[in-house]
Design brief:
Layout: H1 2-29, H2 35-58, H3 68-87, H4 94-98, H5 106-109, H6 114-138, H7 144-163, H8 165-168, H9 190-216, H10 218-228, H11 230-235, H12 240-266, H13 276-289, H14 295-311, H15 320-334, H16 338-369
């Protein structure tokens, strides 16, 4: 039964991926009239990637991180620095000159090439997460205490990026940049947008199946054991801190990759992306979709962001945030398994219960007849 369910989930994901893949085609054929909507779907694909990363540590390992906005923003800033240098031919930007800098900072010069940028986008978040995780998990800090520390980390990162305005442009961030393929705005740049869209979708597919492989491996089973009984796993001889730190690093890297793709669609990045609010929003995606499923966070990220896209304009513009918040509260209180829990557990259980009650009802009717 489990194998069939896993295959069903993978098929559902491929169906979702197939529907997403049709978006540029439908835009080119005129069925979808707004190119901004397809660009927004591209952003949603990036959100799916970071949601999967969060699910690996929260859903499968039981570590609630409220600081993944930092890693998302680091990936976005890294790619943004590369793209900005491409636009200025490797020269200083206007905000650096305004900030009083005389030459291109060393940290910026590291992002001159795309291969170097990709490496740094992975290495920097992995290094921060690895050091932080080693200090925290080795001292067996967990639960709400870890959540508070990760939350404080985002605030520290936010404050640092604001303070270093000559290097980061402060509150404004890195703006007015094009994607790695060039401009994606307007119909004449459709090919660039489609290329970026399909690259992002391909990354999502790879991340999904790689994550599926991780959770089904021995490593993944130990993560689940840590979630369900950390002390029991520890006394069974496993080095729990090493496993937790490893999955935390992997999750941080996925968030950074998502951020690097996101800025290509968004055209800008600001410190807002590393705030606590942004990190909590990511948690909502996972919770609504269903943690501990891989597919659930993908559905949750798509659903919540599409709801936001449609509700944040028109008559519901003033209350759409309350609607999303209410949905999150209802899911947490009554449907802890999220949408995936409803589809794979509660509905089948209700059907089985109804089928089991039918023979009893028939028996009662026969007894009454006699």
């Amino acid at each position: 039964m489990k194998i069939t369910q896993d295959k069903t989930k993978n098929i559902c994901f491929l169906v979702i991926a197939g529907i997403l893949a049709l978006c540029p085609v439908l835009l080119n054929s005129g069925v979808i009239s707004s190119s901004s909507f397809v660009t927004y779907i591209g952003k949603c694909i990036c959100f799916c990637i970071v949601a999967i990363g969060l699910d690996l540590i929260w859903g499968y390992t039981g570590i609630l991180s409220l600081g993944h906005g930092l890693y998302f923003a680091l990936g976005a800033y890294g790619m943004g620095m590369y793209l900005k240098l491409q636009a200025t031919d490797g020269q200083m930007t206007d905000f650096m000159k305004t900030g009083g800098l005389k030459k291109l900072p060393l940290i910026w010069s590291l992002f001159r090439t795309l291969p170097g940028t990709i490496v740094l986008i992975l290495v920097i978040p992995a290094g921060i997460a690895g050091i932080l995780g080693a200090l925290i998990f080795r001292n067996r800090i967990k639960g709400v205490y870890f959540s508070i520390i990760s939350q404080a980390l985002t605030w520290a990162g936010y404050s640092l990026f604001i303070a270093l305005s000559p290097y980061t442009n402060g509150n404004v961030g890195i703006t007015e940049i094009q994607s790695v393929f060039g401009s994606i705005r307007g119909k004449r740049h459709f090919s660039n947008m489609a290329m970026l869209f399909y690259v992002s979708l391909a990354v999502l597919i790879v991340v999904y199946f790689l994550s599926e492989k991780i959770v089904k491996s021995k490593f993944g089973k130990i993560l689940i054991a840590i979630r369900d009984g950390e002390n029991r796993t520890y006394f069974s001889g496993y080095k729990v801190s090493a496993y937790k730190n490893t999955i935390y690093v992997i999750s941080a890297m996925l968030a950074a990759v998502a951020g690097a793709l996101f800025i290509n669609f968004n055209g800008s990045v600001t410190p807002t992306q590393m705030t606590i609010t942004y990190s909590i929003t990511m948690i909502i995606w996972v919770a609504v979709g269903g943690r501990g499923t891989i597919l659930g966070p993908v559905i949750g990220a798509l659903l919540i962001n599409l709801c936001e896209y449609n509700l944040s304009s028109g008559v519901l513009v003033d209350i759409w945030q309350y609607i999303i918040g209410g949905l999150f509260v209802v899911m947490i209180l009554f449907f802890k398994g999220g949408l995936m829990g409803i589809l794979t557990e509660q509905i089948p259980a209700a059907i089985r219960k109804r089928k089991a009650s039918k023979p009893l009802d028939k028996e009662k009717q026969e007894l009454q007849a006699h």
